[in-house]
Every structure is written in structure tokens, then in C-alpha cells.
Hints:
The chain has 3 helices and 8 strands. The strands form 2 sheets. The chain has a 5-stranded mixed β-barrel with strand order 1-4-5-7-6. A two-stranded antiparallel sheet has the order 2-3. The protein has one domain (3-175): Inorganic pyrophosphatase (Inorganic Pyrophosphatase). It has 182 residues and is an alpha+beta fold.
Amino acid sequence: MKLGRRWLKKVAPSDRPEVWVPVIVEIARGSRMKYALDMATGQLTMHRALPRDLGYPTSYGFVAHTTGDDGMEIDMLILAAEPLLPLTIVKVRTIGGCTVEDSGKGREDKLVGVALGDPSVADLDDIADLPVELARRIEEFFTTYKRDEGVTVEFRGWMNRADALRRLASALEAKAKAKRKK
């Protein structure tokens, strides 16, 4: 069994996904480096550096025990007072999400959530509560972060908490179904 998948399986699943889910941080807020967890080694792999004037607007990772439409875990933008260290496991409450469309990969949902235990974001309950400036930075980030690779990304819109929780439930079920088939 691959090392990365082995420790990932040991991450405690949520018994109440509408309240919290475990998220593995790959990229700290403000970083210009695109990292991804390498499932063979359990280490982070640096994919590339973003353009000089562009950094991640939130910490970024994926929800453990999920499978998205692309066969990978579903992505999560994590709101917290401080940048979260890569490979940190964080309990996150989903407040909404967004959809982007990449000319190379197609449509992809990105969930947005708040780190539990951080009082600075505890009052955010739905995507409508997201500060306007942060929402604008997230939209701008996704439409520009692959431009230097010649890839066009279009921001397709926001989803509220209820829609994001349905998307999360679908991704959790897809992972559970795949496990039952093994």
C-alpha cells in the first residue's frame, strides 16, 4: 500500500459532515507555490511557482474520504486567521463553494469552509457572509493562476452552503461506494 494513502486512511472521518469534515492542508494562504500530496510517498510535491504577484488567497487543501468528479479528493479553501501549515489536518465547517472551468480539465467545484476553533471566522455560516473583498480575490485568483501556463480558467459562480453540502455528500458517497467495490 502506498505510504500517502495509508496515513490518509487513518484520518478520522466526520460523523457529522454538515458540522465538520477533515481537511488536509496542501498550501498555506499567501504561498506562491503549488503543492500537492504525493500519494506514493506521503510527502508534498511542488508542481510549480505562481506568477510573482499572485499568492493563494486562503489556505488550500482537500477533504479526506471524498472523491470528486475528476477522481481526486474534493478541494477546500480554508478560512482562518493565520496561514495553515501544509500537511496539517483541520476540522472545517463548509460554508459554500464555487465552480471554475479550466480549458484543460473542465469544470471543478471548490468548497469553502472555516477552520473550527478559530473565533475570527466562527461567524461565517454561508458563502453570503464571505467578505466582498475576499470573494473578489478568490474569483481573481482562479481566473489568473494558470494564465502563465496558457490555460484559461473561468469562474462560473458561487454556491451557497446547502448546495455545497449536497456536493460534499455526493463526494463522500462516491468514495464510500468505491471502497465497497474493493
